[in-house]
Design goal:
It is built from 21 helices and no strands. By secondary structure, the chain is mostly helical. Helix 11 packs antiparallel against helix 12 and helix 16 packs antiparallel against helix 17.
Length: about 425
């Protein structure tokens, strides 16, 4: 493209030093100021025409540039030819010769006003694409809007507007622009619009899933991982999303779910990501082996402890034994957060050591997992010892109102808890 079209903002500095940053003092200063201050092309042209007798070289050159910038090819050619009559040997003269060649070609390609209008429109779209590639999305959208205003709205205009909106993550807006494009698209473009619309819909779903994952990450990393994995299924070429899903799984109780994702990424096309995935995969496998060994040992220790006490019930365990049981159960609950039996045992041990607030938290979580669990009596007891008398009374009332709830006596605790614990330990060792 002719170079003045991108350098028009500097045009009036021509004829003075390119390092000059203030308005030149001389016969053409009014023309210079007209453009430098307000970008008033018409005023600048008028000013250079007035100063033509006193500074013909400066005036001719700048008039040529200004006319080229307004797509008045014939006038631009005329001014540049007049300039060459005054200067035929300088470096600028060589540049003008090159510009005359370009202008002549433009004059042949765009001979009428309608053609010039099309040239302006196409130039705006090209500039919009350049800004879009540079990540200047607002500017790209503005230029595409100007192109649409100039043409009344063409297929290419609407596609350019959709591209700018999608780059701004405004997928609903991008979809509407593509719907407009579809209404004016020629028959051979309909399929392309459909593909673009499907792509925008996909990106919209991915953005929604990633936003949900971001919101869930701190409180429910497993949910965040599942959302990211779903997003990755929509765009399997986007390994970064899969990697994020694996990392989220590692922050959840189901860390092993990260392994198939990392294994797939390890053989992916993205070499750098594959290296990261292989390293993380190896680290995770080592960590899981350690955790599984620790979990199995704790479960084994707990089972051996309960078996070796030779006591009639849990209330006979020593404080040291309870501390060991509490530590083992705490880790098992962390590894099996939805296990009601494990939580129930853990809560009982906490209450036995008069850690009432921690016991209350476990009973509340048990009721969240299973509203019918027979723990309201024990919850009421914990609340009473925390001096939360009203809440304690409500929990006790729920226990009394539930005919199916049998509150085990202390002497029955070993049987009541022991059977569930055996099943829980078995599941924990799987």
């Amino acid at each position: 493209m002719i170079r003045y079209l991108t350098l028009l903002a500097l045009v009036l500095a021509a004829g003075v030093s390119t390092a000059q940053t203030t308005a030149p003092a001389g016969p053409c200063d009014a023309a210079f100021n007209a453009f430098a201050a307000d970008h008033d092309v018409d005023a600048a042209i008028a000013g250079y025409q007035r100063c033509l007798p006193r500074a013909p070289k400066t005036a001719r050159y700048n008039l040529g540039v200004l006319y080229a910038g307004t797509e008045e090819w014939a006038r631009a050619i005329e001014q540049f030819r007049e300039y060459l009559k005054l200067d035929a040997t300088s470096a600028r003269a060589t540049s003008v010769q090159d510009e005359l060649t370009v202008l002549a070609q433009l004059q042949r390609d765009y001979p009428t006003a309608e053609h010039v209008q099309q040239f302006r429109h196409d130039r705006l779209l090209r500039q919009s694409q350049l800004f879009l590639r540079a990540g200047m999305n607002e500017e790209a959208e503005l230029l595409a809007r100007r192109a649409a205003q100039l043409s009344g709205g063409t297929y290419d205009d609407y596609v350019a507007l959709a591209a700018a909106a999608a780059a701004k993550r405004e997928f609903d807006v991008a979809g509407r622009w593509l719907d407009e494009a579809n209404t004016v698209a020629p028959a051979n473009k309909k399929a392309a619009v459909g593909e673009l619309r499907a792509g925008v819909n996909r990106e919209s779903m991915i953005a929604t899933l990633r936003k949900g994952a971001e919101a869930a990450l701190k409180t429910d990393p497993k949910r965040a991982a599942e959302l990211l994995a779903s997003a990755w299924e929509l765009a399997p070429e986007r390994g970064d999303i899969g990697f994020a899903a694996a990392v989220a799984y590692l922050a959840s109780p189901d860390a092993q779910m990260a392994l198939p994702i990392l294994e797939k990424l390890s053989s992916g096309k993205d070499a750098a990501l594959a290296v990261r995935a292989r390293k993380l995969d190896a680290d995770v496998r080592r960590l899981l082996v350690t955790l599984n060994e620790k979990r199995a040992q704790q479960a084994k220790t707990l089972a051996a402890l309960l078996k070796s006490t030779n006591k009639k019930n849990w209330t006979d365990l020593s404080a040291k034994d309870f501390a060991r049981v509490e530590e083992a159960l705490a880790d098992l609950v962390r590894q099996n957060p939805t296990s009601v039996p494990l939580r129930h045992h853990y809560a009982f041990v906490l209450a036995r050591q008069q850690n009432w607030s921690a016991a209350e938290a476990q009973y509340v979580e048990i009721l969240r997992l299973n509203p019918d669990a027979p723990v309201n009596f024990w919850l009421a007891r914990a609340l009473f010892n925390e001096h939360k008398y009203d809440e304690s009374q409500r929990a006790l009332n729920k226990d009394l109102q539930n005919a199916s709830t049998s509150t085990p006596a202390t002497s029955d605790l070993k049987k009541y808890l022991g059977e569930d614990l055996a099943a829980a330990l078995k599941n924990a060792n799987k």
